[in-house]
Amino acid sequence: MHFGRNFAQDMNTEQCTILAIESSCDDTSMAVIKDGKILSNVVANQSIHENYGGVVPELASRAHMQNLIPVLTECLKKAHITLKDINAIACTQSPGLLGSLIVGFNFAKGLSQSLNIPIIGVHHMKAHIIAHWIDEPKPKFPFLCLTISGGHTQIVLMKDINSMTILGETIDDAAGEAYDKAAKMLQLPYPGGPLIDRYAVNGDPKKYTFSMPQIEGYNYSFSGVKTSILYFLQKEIQKDPNFIENNVADLCASIQYCINEILMKKFIKAAKENGVKHIGIAGGVSANSDIRKRIQNAADKYGWQAYIPEFQYCTDNAGMIAITGYYNYLNGQTSTLKDVPSAR
Ligand code: KG4
Ligand code: ZN
């Protein structure tokens, strides 16, 4: 594939305007980045999934198709640019729901062809981490990031912007999944993570205890916690059918405490054992108010520097795809029309 206009002359220069598209799950998002600065970041949430207690892949793909044009229009308007000003299109290529990725990536390919500009495929999980490079201060290396989302839980060590090593990850459920499944047991709507956070504010985190996993090394496991919450609730509901209603704040606070305690223990161990002094969190669960405090407290305690992303760059957003696309573009890493999205 040959790209003509703007490409050759702008490649590897810092002056460029990139439109970014993110459609890996249930949020349709677009952002514009100019010379490394975000000009707009628009996210359209898909409320349809609330009726089903989780994301329905086919409905997500259809909703992306409906959202793409309105989100593009708003995103360009907010950035005060038109399609003609764009030098490249960055788009999430993997991982995610295949149908959702295909809708976004094909739209990106269509735009790149019609505007004759390159397309840059972006890895969604890397982008969650690179979101730290949107604002100041940018992390220094070596940087250790706890990446916690609805589908992933990873401890990632970065030696420079192009080097990421996964030191540990979940062997079953992701942290966000643990939050959402626990919330479902408490009869809270999807996605339950933010609701647990909200109710927990008025609860006692030490009121109930749930089983903690005993896993070697830096890997995580959340399936035991999930089962322990389920059995506990079943037992208590037999004694008092209104147990959840009567204790929702304490339940949420205790569940949040348990999940975050598991996350932090391993993460701090990894930071200490690898001699890292710059730590951060990324992904949807990094919006959790308690984990944000804990990361800051850990940094204060050990004399480290903590990097905590702005809320708009925690849950899925195209701003993170834009900044990652920008660095890929500077490195000459573009994709071709032969490239296809992949779920993993
Ligand atoms: O990164 P993200 O938006 O999507 C994925 O890539 O998966 O993460 C979504 C996850 C959901 O599980 C959601 O419940 C969780 O992030 N989440 C939270 C909070 N905000 C979002 N979990 C706990 N507390 C929050 N405040
Ligand atoms: Zn994500």
Q: How would you characterize the overall build of this protein?
A:
The chain is α/β, with parallel strands linked by helices and about 350 residues long. It has 10 helices and 10 strands. The strands form 2 sheets. The chain has a 5-stranded mixed beta sheet with strand order 3-2-1-4-5, sandwiched between helices. The longest helix is centred in the C-terminal third of the chain and has 31 residues, at about 245-275. The radius of gyration is 21 Å and the shape is globular. Bound molecules: 5'-O-[(R)-(carboxyoxy)(hydroxy)phosphoryl]adenosine and zinc ion (ZN). Zinc ion binds near residues 124, 128, 149 and 316.
How do the strands line up in the largest sheet?
Answer: 3-2-1-4-5
Mean pLDDT: 94
Bound ligand species: 5'-O-[(R)-(carboxyoxy)(hydroxy)phosphoryl]adenosine, zinc ion
What is the CA–CA distance across the termini? 25 Å
Q: Measured on Cα atoms, how large is the radius of gyration?
A: 21 Å
Number of helical elements: 10
How many individual β-strands? 10
Instruction: Show unreliable segments.
Output: 1-10
**In percent, how helical is the residue content?**
40-55%
